[in-house]
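Researcher: I'm comparing several assemblies side by side, and this is the next one on my list. It has 354 residues spread over two chains. Same procedure as the others: predict the full complex and return the structure.
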Amino acid sequence: MRKLSLFIATSLDGYIAKPNDDLSFLKLVEKEDEDYGYAEFIAIVDTIIIGRKTFEYVQREIGISHYDNGERDVYVVTSTERPRLGRIQFYNGDIARLVENLKIAEGKGIYCDGGADLINELLKNDLIDELVISVVPVLLGNGTRLFKDTRPEQMLEFVSVKTFETGLVQLKYQRKK
Amino acid sequence: MRKLSLFIATSLDGYIAKPNDDLSFLKLVEKEDEDYGYAEFIAIVDTIIIGRKTFEYVQREIGISHYDNGERDVYVVTSTERPRLGRIQFYNGDIARLVENLKIAEGKGIYCDGGADLINELLKNDLIDELVISVVPVLLGNGTRLFKDTRPEQMLEFVSVKTFETGLVQLKYQRKK
């Protein structure tokens, strides 16, 4: 079975963005030649699932090539039908069904790149196998929470922690079987 | 200046209790002869600040001797006046003023033992100097959040991380000067 992973940065108080999708807190831990393990992580991923708003944010701020480099299938979860763009396809069906089908198919890792709505929908369906959470040393005080209220309880197994010079702490957990 | 510290356990999704003050998730990491550094921490504390609801919870569930062992001053923050109980006094004035006065007085460390309302009031006033957060490997999905919305942004300095056999990860930060 393929594994679905989160790889995401949050403030110590649990926000992945300040209000208005402000991601400037990530600059606090930006450092030349330090990608916090992203390249290593993404090398074993061949499928990305993202929410529509996150996709449009990345499309606007970074460009579609961030996802569509020809190496990966990208599923954008949305409520409206849209034509495929290269390996990027828009999916407006049942999320659990999509993920379950992806997991039993052949392939490498599956990566959910947010946003919070999609992550919480996946958690509600107990579909996330691994969480890699990078804690940025700041209290943001307000914004978009990584974890929303009203999900089922879920036991985790602690895997590892890595610390970095910038004060970032990367916690890794897997779903307890 | 004396230091005000938090020393608290939370789930990975940021809850310090499930609904109805249910602390049973702490049992997941209970282990004989393992106090996760509490004895060492409390040994350098001579003053405790707690919210009224937390005080009454401890009074009911553990007994008042948990706080009043004759070794520490205890301030219970409440909105109503109540007579002193040994070294436990009830304080219904301005919290920032209380903490500022305690910090400039002679003494050892000051420890805030919750609840979330008091912690967030202290954070709003930038009065917490050190945070020791023990992350229990579970997603609770709902309950009382350690960090509430609508606080000012606050920069932190990462101090250390300790891991334990039970999967508990203890993160230590201090306020950035």
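Model: For your comparison table: Chain B touches chain A at residues 12-14, 18, 28, 123, 131, 133, 135, 137-142, 145-147, 149-158, 161, 163, 167-169, 171, 173 (CB under 8 Å).
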